[in-house]
């Protein structure tokens, strides 16, 4: 109960801070980390943050990045390990104690929550500088902490497109020299591989 009250108090303080910030400096992203990659989730496309999720209901024959199903406020949500989906970490690794679930905004029309390793606060456009999009080279993009170009996370081997996936947004740099990759959650919610959570059954591939 104490943890739940503390989380509600934190959310209330954040809401108050957002109201007090001038419009041009208002946070636009929720900053998170996944397997060492720094990612920006648009606040308008993100929903509830779940600190301590109950046990998930596993889904048979699911993709390795699909953890299971969660009942969140009366609605069933699929839970995706974002680091595994993006190819940043192999499946089966233990979760960090700091991991959280970030639900998609209900307006996106998809009941889904993303597991991230750590929350890293809020970011506004005034705190970040746009960076050039990396070349179509997976190693170069990975070195920048971005989504590898030329790959679509979750795609079967040999099916990777020749460009960055549509849900890979802009790259930004902060005043500490760190690179942040923006994700377009609305585009992610429409991504073919993201929506295809079931593995092909033997003999049907």
From TrEMBL:
<dbReference type="InterPro" id="IPR036061">
    <property type="entry name" value="CheW-like_dom_sf"/>
</dbReference>
<dbReference type="GO" id="GO:0007165">
    <property type="term" value="P:signal transduction"/>
</dbReference>
<dbReference type="Pfam" id="PF01584">
    <property type="entry name" value="CheW"/>
</dbReference>
<dbReference type="GO" id="GO:0006935">
    <property type="term" value="P:chemotaxis"/>
</dbReference>
<protein>
    <submittedName>
        <fullName>Chemotaxis protein CheW</fullName>
    </submittedName>
</protein>
<feature type="domain" description="CheW-like">
    <location>
        <begin position="26"/>
        <end position="194"/>
    </location>
</feature>
<dbReference type="InterPro" id="IPR002545">
    <property type="entry name" value="CheW-lke_dom"/>
</dbReference>
